[in-house]
Amino acid sequence: MPMNLPPNSMKRLFIISNRLPIQLVRQESTVQLLESAGGLATALKSYLQAQDRSSFEPDEVVWVGNADFSRELWEEFQQSKRSTGTFKIEPLWLDDDVNDGFYNGLSNSTIWPLFHYFPSFAEFKEPNWQAYQQANTVFADRLAELYQPDDVLWVQDYHLMLLPAMLRERCPEATIGFFLHIPFPSFEVYRMLPNRWREGLLQGMLGADLIGFHTNDYVQHFEKSVQRLLGIESKLRFVQIPNRPVRVDLFPISIDYERFNSSYRLPGVMAEREAIHQQLQGNKLLFSVDRLDYTKGVLNRLQGYEKFLENHPEWHGKINFVMVVVPSRSEITSYGERKQMIEENIGRINGRFATVSWQPLVYQYRSLSFEQLCAYYTACDVALITPIRDGMNLVAKEFIASRQDEQGVLILSEVAGAAAELGEALLINPTDRVGMALAIEEALSMPVKTQAERIKRMQTRIREYDVVQWADDFLTQLFNAKAQQNQWEVR
Ligand code: GDG
Q1: What's the 438 CA to ligand 1 centre distance in angstroms?
Q2: pTM attached to this predicted model
Q3: Does 181 contact ligand 1 (Cβ within 6 A)?
C-alpha cells in the first residue's frame, strides 16, 4: 500500500490505554518494576520490543495510562534513574470514586458485558456514565498539555471511547487512531445502551481519523450502528462525516510469532516441559489458560469435558486436563461469583470421576511465568479455547506459534475473533456440550500428519501477519487516512 507520508514523519507515538503496562511495587527498600498481563498490554509491548522490525521510527514512544501505584512510588522510581524499557511512561491518577464508576462501573459492568453479548450482566447507572466522561476528560486534558505537532495519538480500547472526540476538540489537527480490542456487537445489542450513551460513544470514536477492529463483522456492526443511530452512511470503509471522512477497517491483532516459536528450545521451557511429561506418566494432556472472566467460557468448557468423560469411560485414567485461571477484576461481584461456580463444578467433576490414582481436572488459580506458559503450550496434546465471545484471543495464536514440533490440536470457539483466521482448528460452538465432547475425541485421535498439516498452515498465517505487521498496518492506514482527509479539504 503506498504511503502518503514518509514513515519517519512521526515525532512521538503516544499509546493511550486505561492501564499502564507496568506496575511498581515496594520490595524491602527498593521499588521493583513488574510487567502487567492481559491481551492489550502483551500485544503492544511485544510490538514495542520488536520495533527494530517496524517501518516506523518515532523519536520517542510514550505510554499514557492510569497508574496502579502511588505518586510517591513513581517519584522514588524516577529518582533511581532506572528505565521503563523501550518506551516512556506518563502515569495518570484518577480520584478513587471516579475510577470506580469509570473502571468497575461503566467500562466493566456496562460496555464489557454488553459488547460480549451478556446484556443481563449490564448495569445502566447514570453516575457511572458521569464517571466515564470525567475519566476520559482527565486523559484528554493531560494529552492536550503533552501534544506537539507531528505526534501520533493511538487510543486503545473500550475504556476510552469518548477520548478521540475530546482530543479532536483540543488538538484539531492531530493524527488520532482508535483501536477496539473487544467485539463491536450487532446493532440490536448495541442499541440497548441508553440513547445519550450510545450516541456519545459513537461520536467519541468518530473523533479519530482511523478506527480499527479485529474482524470484518465488527466493522460492519459499527457501520450499521453509526448509520442507524447517527444517520451517517459509510462508503468504501469511510464514514462520511462532512470534510473529515473517518476510515474504519479491520486489523486482526497478532503476537510476536518468533518469540513464541523459539521458546520451544529455551532451557527453562524444556525443563518445565520435561517435568510436566514426567508427572503425566504417558497420559494425554488437555490445557487451557484464561483470565477469570465469564466471557471466556470456563463453565461451558468444564461441562464439555464432563460430557466427554461421561461418554468415554475408555479414557478414564488416561487423560488430564490442566485448567489455569488467572485472577482478574476481583472487585466486581459477577467475577467473584463466577470463581465460586467454577470451583464448585471442578469439585463436582473430580468427585464424580476421580480415583485414588487419577484426578481428571487439575485447577490452578494463579498466573504462570512465560516459561511455564510455553511449557504447557508445548507439552499439551490439545488446547481448549472456548470463549462465549472474544474480540480476538491471543492465547490461541500463541499456542499455535509455540508448536515448533508441529504437533497438538487447537479446539477453538467459533465466536472468538481468532476463528476467522484459524480455520484449521476444530471450531466448536461453546454452548454445545455434545459438540465439544466430540471435538475432544476427534482431537485425541487425530493422526500426527494431519496435526502437522493444520498447524503449519496456521503458523504461516500468524508468522506473516505478526504483531509488528499489525501495528505497522494500522499506522500506515492512519497516515493514509489523514492524507486523504487533507486532500479532501483542499478540494
Ligand atoms: C483482550 C481481548 C484480545 C494469560 N495468562 C497468563 C498470561 N496470559 C497472557 C496470554 C495472552 C494474554 O495474557 C491474554 O490475551 P487474550 O487475547 O487471550 O485475552 P484478553 O486479556 O481478554 O485480551 C482479547 C486482546 O485484548 C488483544 O486485543 O485478543 O479478545 O479480550 O497474551 O499469554 N501470560 C503469562 N502467564 C499467564 O498466566 N505469562
Answers
A1: 27
A2: 0.95
A3: yes
